[in-house]
Design brief:
The structure is a homodimer.
Chain A (H helix, E strand, L loop, with lengths): L23 H21 L5 H12 L5 H8 L3 H13 L3 E5 L7 E5 L1 H21 L5 H18 L2
Antiparallel strand pairs in A: 1-2
Helix pairs in contact in A: 1-5, 2-5, 3-4
The structure holds a DNA duplex.
DNA sequence: TATTGTTATACTCTATAACTATA
DNA sequence: TATAGTTATAGAGTATAACAATA
């Protein structure tokens, strides 16, 4: 049963973080968690997680790159990439091809199945974003994308 | 030594994720990790993490709320809140006050030290955001904040 | 000596189930 | 029966050090 005890300082509990929402970082974190929940649901139909979708997409777009390059691109540790690559290779979505000039390196190459899955998953992710961000106008979506890009470029330099 | 092997498909490795950057979610994730790294550095001077700063801020702003209410506000599990509250209480920043009307509940109250730390930490976080987002104009910062808020409100409904 | 991929490991974060005391 | 806080635990995710093969 609802009572005055369910209120805090006269506010409903679903607006209790107003002060924190003044911080862009907090807004980003809460927004991202909404996106991630929906994205995970979408990608699970392809047997992918966000990080494996990202890895596969980059390998398809840049065939022949090495694990170190991929780790740098995704900002994850090389060591943590190993099992991810194992997973994709185990499903025959990519292969670790030997590099003649440097036998330490593996050239990551997508298989036909990997390319096909990447294309299908990308379409699903595009639909997911279109639906999820339909609450924003096209202009607002572009603005948001642009501001995030601008911030990333400037702040990581 | 640099060589043609350091390039992938004729691009430098630091722009290898262009395709993924078309996704707002990807942009959010990468932007957030930059913010989090800087925020962690700033808050460590107060012995706080992002989540403990958030919890303390909410308790200061809404004294008397219960752990369940706080967990709902921060979107974390009640079970995972316990050690966080233990930590803040152990440092005498908050207390778990008994609630006369319902002895199952704890009213979370900030101590004077907790209020003082929250104010100081908030000022530091404001400075951190001002500096970090100085690469965006004031208008752009407001736009970003507004778009994140609008998305959160619409998408979580 | 340095780099690439790898293994092992530890630490944090998060999610779930079950318990207790209260209602 | 249901709820608030708690405990225990398992699964992700992430960070670090050290190793073998190769440069």
């Amino acid at each position: 049963m609802a009572s005055i005890g369910d209120m805090v300082a006269g506010e409903t509990t679903n607006r209790i973080d107003t002060q924190l929402s003044e911080f862009i970082g907090y807004g980003m974190k809460r927004a991202l968690s909404i996106v991630q929940a929906d994205l995970s649901r979408v990608l699970s139909e392809f047997g992918l997680r966000a990080v494996s979708f990202s890895a596969l997409s980059i390998i398809v777009g840049h065939p022949g790159l090495t694990q170190t390059q991929l780790a740098d691109a995704l900002q994850i540790e090389r060591s943590n990439l190993v099992t991810l690559i194992d997973e994709l290779a185990g499903r025959n979505l990519i292969i670790r091809a030997p590099v003649a000039q440097d036998r330490r390196r593996h050239a990551l190459m997508p298989t036909p199945a990997g390319k096909k899955l990447a294309v299908a998953a990308r379409a699903a992710v595009e639909t997911h974003e279109r639906d999820l961000f339909s609450c924003l106008t096209g202009q607002e979506q572009d603005d948001l994308k642009r501001l995030l890009k601008k911030f990333r470029q400037a702040a990581s330099a």
